[in-house]
Structures are given as structure tokens and as C-alpha cells.
Specification:
Pectate Lyase C-like; 2 domains; about 0% helix
Length: about 290
């Protein structure tokens, strides 16, 4: 039995031969168009700490890399006319959005590829939201002061391969379904990190430069796996609660508690060294892996 198609505007189920959605009246016979290449050449806003908002709620592949003087430069290639990005610019905010749509399964691999570079000229806040997508975000060396990430059904990788010279006050990640990996997290230079995970696998690698100050990480999730790798000389403490099993490798030891509520520490934490990376972890059903690397 074939799956019922959906209205691209409201998400309601519609029949294969329907011309309009019975719920919202939207025309359903939208077709793919010719390949369109949207050129991006956006300067930095006037504000001292502007915000960049990137949102793509439709299927696609996103590659982001460090750039130079421009705030955003690159291309967005798409062949569904309704996916034309909306770009708005003010003195404080630059927004690049593709409207969320529930895509009917009537196109053969629609094109929606982002290849963009982000600037280094001055500090800024970055907010990004993706729907059904794959993405590689290379954010090392970018002067990001706040990072907010929200993914839907996705396979997303974020890399911090070089230190961020600005203090990132908050790194927040909300995942839906799929696999999300963040590497070189010490290079992000964050004060606080928050993760709200959905269903799937999340891989976090706390490697890179040493800590310059105490930092706090709160990780909460529903169903899935949480793999945490941490630099072996880093003082860290993990407070773990929930119904998940915990495996630990290297010089990470359980110092108190048991299943459902336990504390784990690294050997350098036991020596009383500073600064410290402190974790509070609560995972519903799944597995947690703590490993020194």
C-alpha cells in the first residue's frame, strides 16, 4: 500500500489525484522547475554583535566553512520554486530562510544544496534550524558569541578544528531524529552548553585547546545513544541520572551512586585542578559512553 501524500503547506493527508488541499485550499500540483542558483554576498550589519539566522526546513545538503570579510557568501542551488530563500537584512539581524514545507513524495531527488562561508570580521550570534537534511558545519576560528542549533530529521556534523577567540556564552543544541556529531568542542570556547536530544545518536568530542575557565554542560535526551569523548588531561565531573546504562573507559571512574543516579570523575578532577568541565546528564532510555582520548 502506497503512503498517502501530504499537503506542502499544512501537512494534511491528501489523495493522489487531489488538485487542492481540503484543509487549507493550497494547490497541490506544484512541480519542479529549472535549477536556480541564488548568489549570497552579504556584508556585516552595523551592530557590534549582530545575529545571523539560517533556516532550511526542507530536504537538502548544507556545507558551511569559515570565510573572510563578508558576513555570508556562497550559493544556494534549488529546483523547487517554492524553496526560493527569503533574505532579510537590518542593522542587527541577517536572516536567510527557506519556509518549512511538508514535501510530497512526487519529485525525484529535488535539489537543495547550500555552500556558504561565514565571516570573521567581528563577533556575532549564530542561529540555525534545519529540517530533513545532511550538513557539515565547519565553525572553527569563527568569532561566534552564541550558537543555537535545531535539527529535525538529519545527519549533521559540526567541527571546531581551530579555537574560537571569542567567548561563546551559550552553545545550545536541539536534535530531532538522526545522528548529530560535534568535534573539537573545547575550541568552541563556551561557558555553557545545553543539549536537548530527541531520538537517535549524539556524538560529542571535547577535544582541542585547554579550558580557560570553568564550563558547564547539561545534556538531556529521550531515546538513543550519547557518546562523549573527553581529552584525557581535562578535569571533569559527570552527574548522571535516568534509566540509561553507562560505560566508562580510561581514567574515568564512578565515585558515588549506582544505576539511575551516579557521579563519575576523571583522574585530574580528583587532584583538585582547575578549571573544571562539569556535566549534568539525564537520558531517558539508551546508553551513555564516557571515554578519555
Amino acid at each position: 500500500m502506497m503512503d498517502m501524500p501530504y499537503c506542502p503547506r499544512c501537512g494534511a493527508e491528501v489523495s493522489e489525484d487531489a488538485l487542492y488541499c481540503s484543509k487549507c485550499g493550497h494547490a497541490l500540483k506544484e512541480k519542479r522547475g529549472k535549477l536556480t542558483v541564488e548568489e549570497l554576498d552579504i556584508p556585516f550589519p552595523k551592530a557590534e554583535n549582530p545575529e545571523l539566522e539560517i533556516s532550511s526546513g526542507v530536504a537538502g545538503y548544507i556545507i558551511v566553512e569559515p570565510g573572510y570579510e563578508k558576513f555570508v557568501e556562497g550559493t544556494i542551488e534549488y529546483d523547487v520554486p517554492a524553496w526560493k530563500p527569503e533574505i532579510t537584512q537590518t542593522e542587527n539581524i541577517v536572516s536567510i530562510k527557506q519556509q518549512e514545507k511538508f514535501t510530497r513524495n512526487v519529485w525525484d531527488a529535488p535539489k537543495n544544496d547550500w555552500k556558504i562561508k561565514l565571516g570573521k570580521k567581528k563577533p556575532y550570534q549564530l542561529r540555525m534550524k534545519t529540517g530533513v537534511s545532511r550538513g557539515l558545519w565547519k565553525l572553527g576560528s569563527l568569532p561566534i558569541t552564541s550558537l543555537n542549533i535545531e535539527t529535525g530529521v538529519s545527519q549533521t556534523k559540526l567541527e571546531f578544528d581551530e579555537p574560537n577567540m571569542e567567548v561563546m556564552e551559550l552553545l545550545r543544541l536541539q536534535t530531532g531524529v538522526g545522528e548529530t556529531s560535534l568535534t573539537g568542542l573545547l575550541n568552541a570556547n563556551f561557558r555553557q552548553m545545553r543539549l536537548d536530544a530527541g531520538i537517535g545518536q549524539v556524538n560529542l568530542s571535547y577535544t582541542g585547546k585547554g579550558l580557560e575557565r570553568d564550563a558547564n554542560v547539561r545534556l538531556e535526551g529521550g531515546i538513543g545513544g550519547l557518546d562523549i569523548k573527553i581529552r584525557k588531561d581535562l578535569p571533569a565531573v559527570f552527574e548522571v541520572s535516568g534509566l540509561s546504562s553507562v560505560s566508562h573507559r580510561g581514567n574515568i571512574h564512578r565515585t558515588s551512586g549506582g544505576f539511575g543516579n551516579a557521579i563519575y570523575t576523571t583522574s585530574t578532577y580528583d587532584l583538585g585542578e582547575k578549571p573544571v568541565l562539569s556535566f549534568k546528564i539525564g537520558l531517558g532510555i539508551g546508553g551513555i559512553s564516557l571515554t578519555e582520548v
